[in-house]
Amino acid sequence: METPSDAAAYPAHWEADVVLRDGGTARIRPITPDDAEHLTSFYEQVSDESKYYRFFAPYPRLSDRDVHRFTHHDYVDRVGLAAFVGGEMIATVRYDRINADGRPATGPDADQAEVAFLVQDAHQGRGVASALMEHIAAVARERGIRRFAAEVLPANTKMIKVFTDAGYTQKRTFEDGVVRLEFDLEPTEQSVAVMRGREHRAEARSVQRLLAPGSVAVIGTGRAPGGVGRSALRNILDSGFTGHTYAVNHAFPEGGSTLDPEGVPAYRSLRDIPGPVDLAVVAVPAAHVPDVVQDCGEHGVQGLVILTSGYAEAGPEGREKQRALLRQARSYGMRLVGPNAFGLINTAAGVRLNASLSPRLPGAGRVGLFTQSGAIGIGLLSALQERGSGDGAIAGVSTFVSAGNRADVSGNDLLQYWYEDPATDVALLYLESIGNPRKFTRLARRTAAAKPVVVVKGARHSGTVPLGHTVPATRVPDSTVSALMRQAGVIRVGTVTELIDAGLLLASQPLPAGPRVAILGNSEALALLAYDACLTEGLRPQHPHVLPFAATTAQFRAALADALAGDRIDAVLITAIPWVAEGSSADPEEIAALAAALREAAAEGPAKPVTVVHLAMEELAGALSCTADEPGAPDGPGAPDGPEADHDTAARESDRQAAAPEASEPDRWAAAPEVRDPDRRAAAPEAPEPDRRAAAPGAAGNVPEAPQERPGGLSGGLPRIPAYPAAERAVRALAEAVRYAAWRRESAAPGRVPEYDDIQEAAAGADIERLLDELTTDAEPHRSVALPADEAAALLGRYGIRVRAALPAPDADAAVRAAESLGYPVALKTTAPHLRHRADLGGVRLDLPGERALRRAYQELTDFLGKPEELRPVVQAMVPRGVDTLIRASIDPAAGAVLSFGLAGAPSQLLGDTAHRLIPATDRDVAEQIRSIRSAPLLFGWRGSQPVDTAALEELLLRLSRLVDDHPEVVGIDLEPVVVAPHGLSVLGASVRLARPPATTDLGPRRLPVY
Fold first, then answer.
1. What is the DSSP letter of 122?
2. Are strands 279-282 and 584-585 parallel, antiparallel or unpaired?
């Protein structure tokens, strides 16, 4: 507990930028004596009604004494916070510590405070009070206050709602015409959910304002064609942007003009534009950016896209310029994409915005795309264009953001937006760094429960981050980061090509119900390659169905229909190579007919994913993925128009009916798009076929219902089918879909974090506070410290984790005394760092039955390995034999709190056979964790050995997870070895490290990061 004398320094860590309900930003910070003028000006702009609600009486102005009282605080017993926008104070909140009688108080015994808010009328309804509530509550908890009290007039319904909606446990009374509210400040499940819900809505709204502006100004538009600014303007106009567009350049004539040949209104300064500007695209030299940002802020611009480079990627000086840029933009309530950005794109029909350096607006589709690299952004857009162009095509994009240095808007913000964006079915992200990994994992897990999230991570092995990204580097291997992402439901792929391959399959096909794959096609060699690839990826392929080399479209269609109808098939992979008919290769019309047949069969069949592998048949890939109005595309259910097409359609339909008479007529499906197969539904009305996307997860309730149309298709049209030039690529994408679908099914019924009656959380917290006070210094308050062995064992014991006693043995006589106190048989082992857990070097002697054997072992140990003071020998009682394991919990800057498990010795140290889970871990997590390592069979009776007590092992993992989750001061725990016997387990060694936690965590009040 801090006292006023301890807290004289300004608490800078309370400062925060927050996103408000409407998507704008505000700066929250402690009120200081220098804010007297700000406070006076703020109060003058508050209405008389709001003043009455605050003071319960007319209070037209603040006296000098009032101003002094409201601007001078000790930051412990009296604290005031204010919200600022554009340098103007728009809201305040303060608390005063009180005793049980409601009088001013000080000291740790007074754990209650009275709280009051005041919000400028022009900013009411923006969620300012709710944001201030979160921050003042966090400050109060930090200062030892556990409960707030507030008195509110009954007519002040807005403020009553702020308190009641916060989600805290509260009590309400009414006396003397005043509503008195009291509520505990301990976070509850509801309060955390409320806070995160507000965060989601605010951040999603802030991204929506960037992606759907009503007007855009390009600042730095060159007078001559070419250049970054003029190119950006040209791209906006060519995309068909539905809003107003302006060109800005200080060299343009005064009074406004028209920029030709574009015909765009041109101005010398943003301030000269008569109407509002929602988005500013900035392409001026870095030295002029601050002036531009000031003009934007004063004009009311809502968001910035900074194309200008020369910031953090240029070195330390540039990094400081970038931070100053971010502070300036946020001070005006603006979000920022960049600097060094490539831009953003929104293909929605009502927007059509290409505010990027890409010369072409991609086709509208279902894929959301975020990159931190402009070069990768160019490559992704180009690759998607090659895989299927045009609105509604398989590779169509809903929104695209390339954030460059990612000073502000990041992948986390786009996840918030895409989560509820009806135009986005799949989220694809290329990340070079993760600024807030805990938040990313939380948001990715939530988003992945509704739609796939596919990530490719750059800078995986260097241990550093690219220039311009000021975030901590991870200490854990890349394989660990990948495993933790998969636990959160993220589909982690290795390359940009795999990112597109997986994204297109997930955007266009239903999720598979399992790993069983049917393979069919007209090439045995290609089918066998696909078969082998399936086995490599852990799928269960059926024996390939090889069609004749010159198989007709009717044969392909019938084979696909049969495969889809099979009860033992979850997905179908089709292989196709060019065929020769009457001395000539397949022509484009035949290829279009084949594509139409496959798409019709997929439309009529059960809800199962279909993918195609082709060799030298690019026309087939295009016909499978394009829209109805593109060249070579089938016009609804059937082939393209024309006499030859009509003849081919009739012949194909005749062949199809002969080969598969039970198939339904495609034109009937087109007439009633809500019925996949009218004949089948008529035959079995009690089992209607589910939606293709929704059918795959298999778990109703927690999985949002998918739109009532086929993934990747237009309502009433034929489904698009992804095609790949190599079997390995198609199978890898399908395998990712299988794993993701399995995760969706499992996450629909999540595990739980068990409660244990013997856990002493409060006592452990008191121990930790005492130990940190004893072991840390004022010079390095956040440095981690290792606990003495006895203190570590005592702390673990608070959570029901018993560590077997290890008594020091500085000489042989001490070893004998220790053994007599513990009881024979005993073990003698060294604890020197270079010999710890090294039985292979002779540092451990087991099953010593008596004094004679113990003295002989002690003598041999010191003769061969060194002096006792070097070896630090200890004596432990023998425990039941079993499997030696290790368990660790640690805090990693890139992954958060991680729980690790493996077998002790070579499996974990040499082979890296360790499994990781995020903390807090559930019973389901730890059960999967111990079974996921490659050496897990040793725990379950490998080669006739007796299985060990995995239930006890799972409980130990859960207890350790609870300890780290309950106490963020615990930054590292090692339990090694943990001997797991057929009945029970024994923890033979333990080490614990503590550190004072950082000022904020993902559980703290919402705030924007500063990189």
1. G
2. unpaired
